[in-house]
Amino acid sequence: MSDTLFSPLQMGGLDLPNRIVMAPLTRNRADDVTGEVGPMQAEYYAQRASAGLIITEATQISPEGKGYVGTPGIHTPGQVAAWRQVTDAVHAEGGRIVVQLWHVGRISHVSLQPGGQAPVAPSEIAAKAQTVTREGFVDTSAPRALRLDEMPRIVADYVHAARCARDAGFDGIELHAANGYLLDQFLKDGPNRREDAYGGPVENRMRLLLEVLDGLATIWEPERIGLRLSPWSSFNDASDSDPDATFGAVVARLNGRGLGYLHLVEGNTGGARDGDFDALRARWQGVYMANNGYDRDLAMTRVAEGKADLVAFGRPYIANPDLVDRLRRDAPLGEGDQATYYGGGAEGYTDYPSLETA
Ligand code: PHB
Asked: Which of 11, 41, 60, 140 is the most core-located residue (most Cβ within 10 A)?
């Protein structure tokens, strides 16, 4: 019998009870000064512990890695202690949770950067994209290009965050190399115009990603490290001229590293499912997590056909803490209120009912 969305999966020593993953969702409710989460986030994630796996909201690895108001960090002792409340709460409910490690690169604003500095990027090209500061939506600031001698420090920042993630009690980490943030900016030839060892041919553009993965593997078993890519996405003004070739080469180099999973944004982030993701998936030799625009039918079909091992649901998880139960029963889904997606308090965050309580 073939697998279903509701069959268990052994992944990297974790027993996932089903194939439904809570995708990373930016909710901007951390303390903007300290970057710490609190009891509210512990409750929010614990409510969603029936997911096969929870991936936290994108979480910055360093002050420089921050690009939005109210996003959490995983690089200070206070942040570690705060996340510990979250991992304890999720584990107490029988769940599994990994933290998504994030450096935004050029998708930031000087008002969010240490000392009001320019954000960093592969090249000095501003993104035609917006971010959110305390004052609301603004254009991203012009970045400065990272110097060659800064690359080891970037890798060290990821390694430090990976160690913090371990200390905070996470079950693993997901490296965010998608959606036009720093590592994706290096991978794609639109934002990366470097002429040194980190730019030009794809072997050079993937250098930073591979160095970061090597660094993370000094802290975590490779099987506890997942990776997110978005080859065909133009989100945050990051596009590649030949995504199939670029990311085919990347996946070929990733095979053999024993990573826990590959998490692919299939098509344009939050948009059309365009792109030859089945061909890329066929090249990947590990656990494959699919994301982007999935509903129950598509998820059931893709898992049954062997086209996905896991399916990550984003927006449906906002208003349906018991999404697994609702999908299993084919029950109607609650609709999230867009006005409370980003920022604010418990309203629109921890107050969505489960079927049982509704
Ligand atoms: C966002 O904060 O808008 C955001 C963060 C991470 C993503 C995509 C969007 O991958």
From this structure: 60
